Batch of 2 targets.
Target 1
Amino acid sequence: MKFIDQSAEQFVPRIGIDIGGSSVKAAVQIGNEIHTSVSSCYEHPNHAVLASRIREAVGSCWNKIFTESDKAIHDDSEVCISVPGPVDDNGVLLAAANLSGIINTHIPSWSADVLGLRKQPVVITDTLAAAYYEYHCNPFQGRSLYLSIGTGVGGIILDSGCPLIFTRGTCGHLGHIDVSGDVETAPYRAGSGRGSLEAYIGYRALLAAGVPADETRWANHPAARPALQALVRALRTMLVIFRPGEIVLMGGVGITLEPALTFLEEQVRRDLSPAAPVSWMLRCSKSDHFAAALGACQTVNLQNEQIS
């Protein structure tokens, strides 16, 4: 993992693209100048819709930087794309609950065609991209658990900046952990199963439960209590399994949980297993909704280097 040296190769365009469950976010950097943009929303898009949203998001950034005569996207741009699901060693998207229309797509070649690039982009998971960016902004010496809560829920572990990987390029599908305690009545989300953390606290799950997730202090709403309790159960489990020194809540939903941090930490610490670390802290990311796009943008696409 390397980040851009802004004093070197300053005129090579860097493009970070975060393909999310409901929109595409992009970050474009030329030298010290960087711009971000988000596409129009979608739901379970096919290839054509997603291609148009990628061009929309990247094009909006591009138009902020270049003059009319330079509006065409450079075909030698260095591009990194983050996706909300695991990819195999060749870059094929294996699973994505909110992007079922593009599963089994070879993302590097497809996205190169979409943007007219000469070389194929690097592809990593959205949670890893966001975690890299957060670590770059706030490095932590030791083990950190980054839990990204947005349309879906995912997690990554960094050991002093290095990812802990068990399977399919991840440390495990943390948003799929069953936190229900009662399978009969637990909510269900396609792609993560009944009773999963994502089925309780993913953005669409919150809306379906009657939680005003677009409000700043949505965690105070009575309908949010099951989601918060599910998150507490998940964090207690993750503390025992991974033993992180810090837990960072990221994503569009995760970063809005700051008003509830004291409540969450008190509930997590209450009679917590002695197998959990004695010292740990819980915080929300200071990054905004563009963390994954910015993390992808700052990932240098080196010749013959594969980032998984």
Target 2
Amino acid sequence: MTVINNKAIIVYVDDTERCLEEFTWLYKSWRMWKHDSEFDLVVYCNPTAVSKIPVHENLLIKPKEPLQKTDLFWKHYAFVNSFAMFNDISEAEWVQQRYSHVMKTDCDVFLTKHFSGHAPNRLMLGAGGYLTDSDNCEVINNLKRISETLNIKQNHMHNIGATIFGKTSEVVPAIRMQYTLTKYLLSTEWKTDIGKWPGWYRGVASMYAFELAINAIFSQQHVTLYALDEKCWKHNVIDKSTLHIHAWHSADYFSKHDWFKGKYQKLVNDNIPTNTAEYCHWIVSNDLETLINTIKKENISHEV
């Protein structure tokens, strides 16, 4: 019998080998903890990837052409596809009519068992990585300048990640504004060069846009900062506050770059890992059946 969920996880999947594999990480962690009985997984994807997406009664596939094919403005900014779905008014209305709460995230993420049961009244936001000690001043000053130019609020919330989870009525407008502001930034900044990382850099324009959008719409008392996009590093212990882990761009273990280079072996483990690095490694290197069986065995041993 199909379970009717009023909450959803929303993601975009492109038709590349890497993106499709990264999506399996989210998919496996959605299935292994039975989050599929509480959250639909709504997959906007390149139409050519439809047949490569797993079949599940609570996984909804929404074919959507990459914007690079339909709008030349985005030719050199493919990341827009990860959040552009709600710029389509019909899709925005569909999501708002169907779900009370949604989480928009990226493919290269992992859910933990603690994700279950959440339907936040305060918007939950992830942690970003576009501000460092060396470039805080430059980036923050530029964001302040743009806020003043556009006459939008700046509530001093910085380094906001790609993931957002909350009431659909709040998530969708924030992402729609992110789209508009990303287009504005790409049109007005970096006219002579793309900038330099770390610093004011064209490659993360959508992250700057998301910070601007969140600050424009919400005050600090209305959001929970850095509740998502946990880092996938070995010193990070998984506890009840660890809901969602992001495979960060990093050379530290767990590094998704090293995984794709073949530098990691399969992680054979009789127990569920307790730190985020091994947890991610465990999921990427094992099939869904193995993961589920390990969970079952650990649950049985705790009951004995």
